[in-house]
Amino acid sequence: SKRSIPADASITAHVGIGQIPGGFGLDIDLHVSLPGLEQADAQQLVDAAHVVCPYSNATRGNVDVRLHVTV
């Protein structure tokens, strides 16, 4: 179902680099703010977006991504 994204929604990405077996790797913390939504609805929206996002699909299994959702 379609949901409206709040006009003041924001996403902040923190990208790190560190050693992994065999070289170096990235890890990402995505801080998503969706003011005005219920926490469960916001989390569901972010999780669904993460499943279909082309960047997420390209990096899945290669980059550790953590999603942090606030309302």
Automatic annotation (TrEMBL):
For this protein, the record's Gene3D superfamilies field holds: 3.30.300.20
Q: Which residues does UniProt assign to the signal peptide? A: none
InterPro entries registered for this protein in UniProt: KH_dom-like_a/b (IPR015946), OHR (IPR019953), OsmC/Ohrsf (IPR036102)
Q: Superkingdom, according to UniProt?
A: Bacteria
User: Which SUPFAM superfamilies would you find in this protein's record?
Assistant: OsmC-like
The chain's coiled-coil residues are: none
Biological-process GO terms, alphabetical: response to oxidative stress
PANTHER family for this protein: ORGANIC HYDROPEROXIDE RESISTANCE PROTEIN-LIKE
This one is known as Organic hydroperoxide resistance protein
Question: Species name for this entry?
Answer: Pseudomonas syringae pv. actinidiae ICMP 18807
